[in-house]
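Structure (tokenized):
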């Protein structure tokens, strides 16, 4: 029997090891822009779900590596001594009340907002840096023209950082692939364009400079940090986006008729960040065709997530009629 698509794709998306490069052999995330490569297994070993999400947020590599990508903690004392970050995360795991109370504030439970608040919680407590502002609005009279996600001051200066966490599925022909959000409307290329052309330049505008001067904050350098997951189509490989890092485990998508064998479970959206473990409250996979993309996980005998897969409706992504805009 020949290889099934699942087997081909599993081999395809193992981390690529550059020949003769010891930094990329044997250690997940090595050689990436995260300063915490050696802690890659820690999120799975923590007990509290929200602390696992916190650990994943700080430790996981970016979705893409680029010149304008900067890890928010890269100049912190934790980056110089990753074991101290590990100790701090274990302390949060043993006494999670402060993190739980912080995340419970407000009514916005969107995953992107929770991701921002996880970063804020850590940056407020990180040794060797100072969080000068978060979600700083830029107002011109009664109009809000935008906001700056983070203003961080460290030994390398002041930094305006824009954050996002995204889940993109690759589709289309190999010579012109697109990376789309599960709903089909959000696009990686469009998100990057918005960040680079709209969000990052905000801190250099006269309005922002006036606001920063009033807060006694020096002019910052702008950068982004984009976390998340990329999903290959199960039945055919696509070229990765420029700067993408091949994941350590299979991250695929398919329609129902191609769903690989195994015990797949639905991962609720509130648990999409950190890898699933034995006590992650997954749901049984319903029978029949999904009406909306569902994120599934497959766990090993220990209960640790070993693969992720978006199960999508037939014909995904649904394209609008040609005359829809008329």
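Design, position by position:
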């Amino acid at each position: 029997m020949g290889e099934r698509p699942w087997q081909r794709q599993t081999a395809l998306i193992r981390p690529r090891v550059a020949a003769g490069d010891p930094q990329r052999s044997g250690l997940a995330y090595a050689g990436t822009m995260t300063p915490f490569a050696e802690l890659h297994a820690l999120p799975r070993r923590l007990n509290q779900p929200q602390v696992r999400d916190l650990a994943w947020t700080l430790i996981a590599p970016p979705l893409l590596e680029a010149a304008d990508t900067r890890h928010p903690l890269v100049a912190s004392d934790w980056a110089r001594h990753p074991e101290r970050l590990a100790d701090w995360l274990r302390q949060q795991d043993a006494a999670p009340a402060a993190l739980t109370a912080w995340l419970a504030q407000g009514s916005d439970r969107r995953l992107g907002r929770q991701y921002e608040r996880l970063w804020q919680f850590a940056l407020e407590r990180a040794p060797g840096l100072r969080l000068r502002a978060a979600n700083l609005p830029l107002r011109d009279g009664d109009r809000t023209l935008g906001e700056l996600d983070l203003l961080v001051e460290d030994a390398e200066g002041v930094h305006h950082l824009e954050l996002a966490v995204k889940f993109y599925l690759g589709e289309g022909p190999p010579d012109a692939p697109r990376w789309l959000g599960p709903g089909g409307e959000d696009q990686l290329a469009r998100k990057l364009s918005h960040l680079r052309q709209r969000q990052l330049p905000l801190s250099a505008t006269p309005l922002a400079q006036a606001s920063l001067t009033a807060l006694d904050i020096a002019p910052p350098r702008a950068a982004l940090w984009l976390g998340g997951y990329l999903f290959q189509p199960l039945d055919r490989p696509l070229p990765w986006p420029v700067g993408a890092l091949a994941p350590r485990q299979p991250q695929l998508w398919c329609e129902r008729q191609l769903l690989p064998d195994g015990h797949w479970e639905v991962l609720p959206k509130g648990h999409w960040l950190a890898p699933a473990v034995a006590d992650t409250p997954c749901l049984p996979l319903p029978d029949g065709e999904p009406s909306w993309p569902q994120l599934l996980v497959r766990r090993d005998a220990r209960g640790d997530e070993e693969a992720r897969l978006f199960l999508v409706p037939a014909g995904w992504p649904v394209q609008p009629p040609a005359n829809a805009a008329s």
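Reviewer-requested clarification: The first helix runs from residue 5 to 12. DSSP finds nine helices and ten strands in the chain.
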